[in-house]
C-alpha cells in the first residue's frame, strides 16, 4: 500500500456518526474537508490520526500520522525552536533528550517558513499566525508521511494565511499525504480533491464540482456570491 486507505470507515463519538467513507489518499496529494460546524470534520481527522477508534470499517496507514490541532489550541512556554525540535522526539526512542541534529533540523524548518527570526521567542507570546507556522515547521521535522490539519487557516490574517497555504503545499510536495479541514473555500479550491460532509452524506469530488453553487447551498444553506475556484460572480 502506498497511500492512506479508508475502507467503509465510520467515524463518530457520543451518539454521533458519519456515513461510511471509502477513500485512498496518495502521496503528494492534498485533500480538503469542508462542511458546516458540527458536521464531523474534527472527528474524522482524529479517527484518521488514531486518536479516536473507528466505529466501523478500517484505516490502513503507510506510516505514522501527525495531527495538528486548530490555531490557538496549543499553549507552551518553550521557545519556538525547542517546540519545533520536539517534533523529532519520537525519532529518538532510546535517547533521553534531543540532540544537536534535532535543533539544527528545527532551525532549518523555521527558516524555510520564514519564521527563523522567532526561534528564541517563547511560543506562547507569538501571534496565532506565527504559532501556526511554527507548528507546521514541527510537521516538517516529524517525518510523518500523513499530515492531518484541523482548520489550519482559522484566526489568521491574509498574510499568515497565505504563508500557511504555501507551507501546506510544501508538505505535499515532499510526498506527504495531507488532509486539512477548512472553512476557507479558496484554499479548498486549490486542493486535489474535496471531501464534503453534509448532514447525512459524504461526497468526494474535484474542487470544481464540490464547490459549485448547488453543493455550497446543500452544505451551508447559503448562496455563494462568487465561485471559490475562479472568483467569478455566481448567477
UniProtKB/TrEMBL annotation:
Give one GO biological process term. Answer: zinc ion transport
Check the record and name the PROSITE patterns matching this protein: ABC_TRANSPORTER_1 (PS00211), ABC_TRANSPORTER_2 (PS50893)
GO molecular function terms listed in the Swiss-Prot or TrEMBL record: ATP binding; ATP hydrolysis activity
| Keyword Aminoacyl-tRNA synthetase part of the UniProt annotation | no
Extract the InterPro entries matched here: AAA+_ATPase, ABC_transporter-like_ATP-bd, ABC_transporter-like_CS, Metal_Ion_Import_ABC, P-loop_NTPase
Q: Does the keyword Transport apply?
A: yes
Q: Source organism's superkingdom? A: Bacteria
Q: Which keywords belong to this entry?
A: ATP-binding, Ion transport, Nucleotide-binding, Transport, Zinc, Zinc transport
* Annotated ABC transporter domain residues: 1-224
Q: Which Gene3D superfamilies match?
A: P-loop containing nucleotide triphosphate hydrolases
Entry's family note: Belongs to the ABC transporter superfamily.
Q: Which PANTHER family match?
A: METAL TRANSPORT SYSTEM ATP-BINDING PROTEIN TM_0124-RELATED, MOLYBDATE IMPORT ATP-BINDING PROTEIN MOLC
Q: What is this protein called?
A: Iron complex transport system ATP-binding protein
Amino acid at each position: 500500500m502506498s497511500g492512506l486507505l479508508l475502507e467503509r470507515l465510520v467515524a463518530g463519538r457520543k451518539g454521533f456518526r458519519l456515513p461510511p467513507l471509502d477513500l485512498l489518499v496518495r502521496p503528494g496529494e492534498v485533500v480538503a474537508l469542508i462542511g458546516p460546524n458540527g458536521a464531523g470534520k474534527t472527528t474524522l481527522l482524529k479517527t484518521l490520526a488514531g486518536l479516536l477508534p473507528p466505529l466501523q470499517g478500517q484505516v490502513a496507514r503507510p506510516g505514522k500520522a501527525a495531527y495538528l490541532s486548530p490555531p490557538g489550541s496549543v499553549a507552551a512556554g518553550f521557545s519556538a525552536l525547542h517546540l519545533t525540535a520536539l517534533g523529532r522526539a519520537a525519532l529518538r526512542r532510546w535517547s533521553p533528550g534531543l540532540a544537536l541534529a534535532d535543533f539544527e533540523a528545527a532551525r532549518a524548518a523555521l527558516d524555510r517558513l520564514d519564521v527563523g527570526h522567532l526561534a528564541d521567542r517563547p511560543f506562547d507570546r507569538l501571534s496565532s499566525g506565527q504559532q501556526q507556522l511554527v507548528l507546521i515547521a514541527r510537521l516538517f521535522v516529524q517525518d510523518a508521511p500523513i499530515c492531518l490539519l484541523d482548520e489550519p487557516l482559522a484566526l489568521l490574517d491574509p498574510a499568515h494565511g497565505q504563508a500557511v497555504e504555501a507551507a501546506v503545499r510544501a508538505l505535499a510536495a515532499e510526498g506527504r499525504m495531507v488532509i486539512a479541514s477548512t472553512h476557507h473555500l479558496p484554499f479548498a479550491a486549490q486542493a486535489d480533491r474535496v471531501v464534503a460532509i453534509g448532514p447525512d452524506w459524504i461526497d468526494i469530488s474535484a474542487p470544481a464540482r464540490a464547490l459549485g453553487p448547488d453543493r455550497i447551498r446543500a452544505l451551508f444553506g447559503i448562496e455563494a456570491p462568487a465561485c471559490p475556484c475562479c472568483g467569478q460572480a455566481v448567477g
